Amino acid sequence: MTEPLILKGNAVAEKNKKYCLDLIETYLLTPHLYVLIVGSNPASLYYVESIKKQSLKYKINITVQNFQENEIDENTLLQKIQKLNQDPNVHGIMVQKPLPKHIDPGKVEQCIAPHKDVDGFHALNAGLILYEKECFLPCTAAAILEILDFYDILVEGKHVVVVGRSNVVGKPVANLLLYKIKNRNATVTVCHSRTPDMSLYTRQADIVIVAVGVPRLLKSEMIKDSAVIIDAGINELTDKEGKTAYVGDVDFEGCFLKCSAITPVPGGVGSVTTSILFKQLCISSKKSRDS
User: Fold this and answer.
1) pLDDT tens track for 183-232
2) Exposed, middle or buried by CB within 10 Å (0-12, 13-18, 19+), for 182?
3) 55: closest CA among 30, 26, 85?
4) In 3D, which of 196, 198, 256 has the Cα closest to residue 227?
5) What are phi and psi of 181, to 5 degrees?
6) What is the four-CA torsion angle of 130, 132, 137, 142, rounded to 10 degrees?
7) How does residue 1 score in pLDDT terms, banded at 50, 70 and 90?
């Protein structure tokens, strides 16, 4: 058996970066992302710092406004978002999660104007996916599809099992795979925490997409020979010596020699996700310029 193809995300992200830079240069755009943080969650702060660094390579402007947990109530935050919705110099709005308990994340998501919802979480954008209309997509779901397309992995007519039913990854990617367009048209099964004997389904899959936040959930005995594995999970583990490692939702070592292609963690889906965020921001900036 030939060694599996490792589906690295860097090349896909570079393609998206070139797209953004070409769009910015051609139309003289100044894409502006406004990020709101409430609280001091270390993972949130780390992620925002990461996208700030990445934005320099894309020639994108980012404004970050950080509120202490008890500094702002829900209504004030919603009013702030409404003002940003009306600001023509802001092309994308992102509210970093998790939010403190006194703020409803659902209300926040639906307050962001759909045309500035570059995270792709607004109900209107979710509905447009069902109707196969142009919209902003949840970035991780879009990243998965771009990886499959970039590496010429055939989706049409294949049985794809999606493990996870979140609004961020599982549900949107399942619906996107059903699109009646070139290299979609998949047969899709969705498994989740209430699915009895999940391996009964994953062993039948030509492609398995896992996004549940459970370290190394998918084992080699749960897949068939030559399956394609897309791991959209990232989990922080600490060993007995206190060393930190990041692993996916797939047992990479166990599945490696049995599959035909697999995404690494880190360096796979996650590295493409941020590039999708910036790509959608640039598209929003272009549409704002044209309106």
Assistant:
1) 999 999 999 999 999 999 999 999 999 999 999 999 999 999 999 999 99
2) exposed
3) 30
4) 256
5) -135, 175
6) 110
7) low
Report the Cα 22 to chain-centroid distance in Å: 23
Where in the chain does DSSP place strands (E)? 5-6, 32-38, 61-67, 92-95, 159-163, 187-191, 207-210, 228-231, 235-238, 244-247, 261-262
Query: Alpha-carbon distance 225 to 203, whole Å?
Result: 9
DSSP symbols for 50-110: HHHHHHHHHT-EEEEEEE-TTT--HHHHHHHHHHHHH-TT--EEEE-SPPPTTS-HHHHHH
SS3 258: coil
| CA-to-CA separations, 176 to 65, 171, 261, in angstroms, rounded | 33, 9, 21
Amino acid sitting at position 53: K
Say if residue 288 is exposed, middle or buried (CB neighbours under 10 Å; 0-12, 13-18, 19+): middle
- Distance between CA atoms of residues 225 and 157, nearest Å: 18
pTM of the model: 0.95
CB-based burial of residue 141 (10 Å sphere; 0-12 exposed, 13-18 middle, 19+ buried)? buried
Q: Which two tokens stand for residue 26?
A: 């051609």
Query: Could you give the strand order of the β-sheet that contains 61-67, starting from the edge strand earlier in sequence?
Result: 61-67, 32-38, 92-95
What one-letter code names the amino acid at 259? C
Contact 19, 279 (CB under 8 A): yes
